[in-house]
């Protein structure tokens, strides 16, 4: 896929991996729209990036529908969806509640699925498209305290594999990218990024991996990729 002039939609694009990815793709000529739940933050990030802002919560079906309507009205074509929006925290098994599952799954699983559903409808008509789901290394190996979050990423991994089989006949590439720990605002209530940990991955490393996966010639795709910090300890 050629990045220049491609029309790309990134969920959760106001901070961290989504923001870094939007910046890199825009620098290389893509037309990018970012979504975020907070209107003020979303518009601020979009101004900084030169992106199109869409205030939306992927966990809200009406917002998902409006997101694609707004995007298609602006660009007329969708070349790639980057399912980046995600939330999470750690809780031991005896402390988890049904509400914990509902909160995290509503974004990480149900929201990603509904975004993927809408994108698939467009891609089938176009006979072309790309989906990158941002998973986690927690999607491949559970950990203490990860009952809710890790299982949500395992679910995303399973959905990715299903979409790959369903959409390949329509020239749609579906890819999963699993970062290990990244120095972003993820999981932090104050939503400020951690930029002083030189041994951890940054959003820009993940952005480069996303760009590289998209730039692979359309005749092939990378089903799943993990990006690890070399020595995070």
From TrEMBL:
Coiled coil ranges: none
Name under which the protein is recorded: 3-oxoacyl-[acyl-carrier protein] reductase
CDD domains attached to this UniProt entry: SDR_c
Source organism, top-level taxon: Bacteria
Keyword tags: Oxidoreductase
Pfam families associated with the record: adh_short
An example molecular function term from Gene Ontology annotations: oxidoreductase activity
Family (UniProt): Belongs to the short-chain dehydrogenases/reductases (SDR) family.
